[in-house]
Structures are given as structure tokens and as C-alpha cells.
Design brief:
By secondary structure, the chain is an alpha/beta fold. 56% of the residues lie in helices and 12% in strands. It has eleven helices and six strands. The chain has helices at 2-34, 39-48, 50-54, 57-73, 86-98, 154-162, 170-181, 197-217, 232-245, 247-253, 255-265; strands spanning 75-78, 113-117, 121-128, 133-140, 142-144, 150-153. The strands form two sheets. A four-stranded mixed beta sheet has the order 1-2-6-5. The chain has a two-stranded antiparallel ribbon with strand order 3-4. Helix 1 packs antiparallel against helix 4 and helix 5 (86-98) crosses helix 6. Bound molecules: zinc ion.
Length: 273
């Protein structure tokens, strides 16, 4: 009887424990958000992330708070002998947090760890058709795991962020995958604010994805990288890179796609350039 009472008491404590944890986390986030961007992190970001320098002052200020939370909550691990420095942490965090500006931030809720390699790295993949199993080695700039880490190559991070107009930014790309994966499916449809938005999102992104596939097949020029024609998840990640790095071209050539991303990210990068 006493054991039963004890078990009931412990079970009763579990929800209380999570509620307290949630309240404390919310309070801590509020404090960090209100704190100014640490001067040494700001200087790193000003040097390494030209996109940051384009932001209006109000967004720069907001980004500082988001970076404070991101760096307090996410763990960075160096791989292949790389030692994690403030430069690595701040450069990656600032670009990832650009995707959270102006939105109800969940801070990439499924992500706990960011693994960073010094250079592009080799990864082994295995595929099977039931009869034959093929093992391949591919060179990677980065990857995003559902319920797992984001993996980045530091030389790709610095290369991607320094050229602001090539629509190639591995941090924006991999963290867009994280947003896409938040609903449990990597399918090019992140969680949208209103249920009614999914219909237009699906119509516009499907149409644009198929158009990019046709351009790739016919070897025609495209504003977006043709890697976006791989599958809908890659399309969303590549569209995100293009939205932030080639906003004018995207708005001119793909106004509907630009508007969908503008509504989703609650940002209008054309105004910054
Ligand atoms: Zn990708």
C-alpha cells in the first residue's frame, strides 16, 4: 500500500517537474533576449557575416538576443581535430538565427548539437534495392539530421557567408532543413502559422519545384541552384538561400515564391539590398 502511494506521488511529481523546467527556461530566454549582443560576438559577426551588416538596426538588435539564447542552449562539438572557438560559434549562430527573426522562435527545438568539421568531409552512404547494397562515399559541406545534429564544414561556412550574392550559404541551407523537419517530415513544408496557408504553399512550391526540375533537365539557366531540383526538401533549403542572398532576382523571376517565403520568414530582404 505504501509502495503504491509512493508510486502515485512520484507520477504526480513528473508533470510538475516539467512545468517548472518550462517556466525556468522561458524566464531564462526572456532575460537572454533582452540582453545586448556581446561586443566580441558582434565584432565577429560583423566581420564574417555580411548579411548581418545589411540588416536594419532593429533586426540587428533582435538578432543579438536570439544569438544569446542560441549559444546558451546549443552545444558545439569540434570534429576532425577542430577546436571550437567563439568565432565558430558566433558565425554559425548568427546565420541560423536570421531564420528566426520576427517569428515566434522555437530555437530549432529538436536540435541540441552542432558538429563542425574543419573542411568538407567524406561520409559513407548505403542504399539497397533489395538485391544489391551499394556503399558510396560522398563529400559533404553539411547535413541536417531529423531529431539529431546539424553537421557543418567550417571552410564551407566561411566560404558561404562571405559571398553574399551567390545564393550559396550552407548554414542557411542546413537550418532551413531543421525548420522543415520540425513537424517530423522532411518534405519542403515547414510548420506554417495558419492552417489555411498550406494550400497556397503547396501550390506555389510544387509549381516552382517542377519548373526548376524542367530547367535542370533542359540545361537552362536558373536563379536558384539546380540542386534544389533534387527533392522538395532540398528545394525549400535552396529557395531559402536564394531568398536571402538573391532576393531581387527571386522577386523579379519568381514573385509568388518570394511572397510565400516573405510571409513565412516575416522578412523582406529586397528592402535591405
Ligand atoms: Zn540539403
Amino acid at each position: 500500500m505504501i509502495i503504491l502511494q509512493l508510486i502515485t506521488a512520484v507520477i504526480g511529481l513528473v508533470p510538475a517537474f516539467f512545468i517548472v523546467k518550462l517556466v525556468l527556461r522561458r524566464r531564462k530566454r526572456k532575460q537572454l533576449l533582452a540582453m545586448p549582443f556581446r561586443q566580441e560576438w558582434k565584432q565577429i559577426v560583423q566581420k564574417n557575416v555580411p548579411l548581418y551588416n545589411r540588416l536594419p538596426d532593429s533586426l540587428k538588435e533582435q538578432l543579438g538576443g536570439l544569438v544569446n539564447v542560441f549559444l546558451a542552449e546549443k552545444k558545439f562539438e569540434g570534429c576532425g581535430g577542430l577546436e571550437i572557438t567563439d568565432e565558430i560559434r558566433a558565425t554559425i549562430a548568427a546565420q541560423a538565427c536570421i531564420l528566426l527573426l520576427n517569428r515566434k522562435a522555437h530555437y530549432f527545438r529538436k536540435l541540441h548539437t552542432i558538429l563542425v568539421y574543419p573542411d568538407t568531409y567524406a561520409a559513407k552512404t548505403t542504399s539497397s534495392n533489395g538485391t544489391v547494397t551499394v556503399e558510396e562515399q560522398s563529400i559533404r559541406l553539411g547535413e541536417s539530421w531529423q531529431n539529431g545534429p546539424v553537421v557543418l564544414a567550417w571552410n564551407s561556412v566561411t566560404g558561404g557567408s562571405s559571398n553574399i550574392a551567390d545564393a550559396q550559404n550552407v548554414v542557411l541551407h542546413e537550418f532551413a532543413h531543421q525548420l522543415d523537419q520540425e513537424d517530423g517530415a522532411s518534405d519542403g513544408a515547414p510548420i506554417l502559422e495558419h492552417r489555411s496557408s498550406y494550400v497556397t504553399w503547396a501550390r506555389v512550391l510544387s509549381k516552382e519545384y517542377e519548373a526548376l526540375q524542367r530547367k535542370k533537365k533542359e540545361h537552362r539557366k536558373a536563379v536558384m541552384s539546380k540542386y534544389g531540383a533534387t527533392n522538395p526538401a532540398e528545394f525549400f533549403a535552396v529557395a531559402t538561400e536564394t531568398f536571402f542572398e538573391k532576393p531581387k532576382q527571386m522577386k523579379k523571376r519568381h514573385p509568388e515564391l518570394y511572397d510565400e517565403l516573405k510571409n513565412y520568414y516575416k522578412l523582406d530582404p529586397v528592402e535591405w539590398s
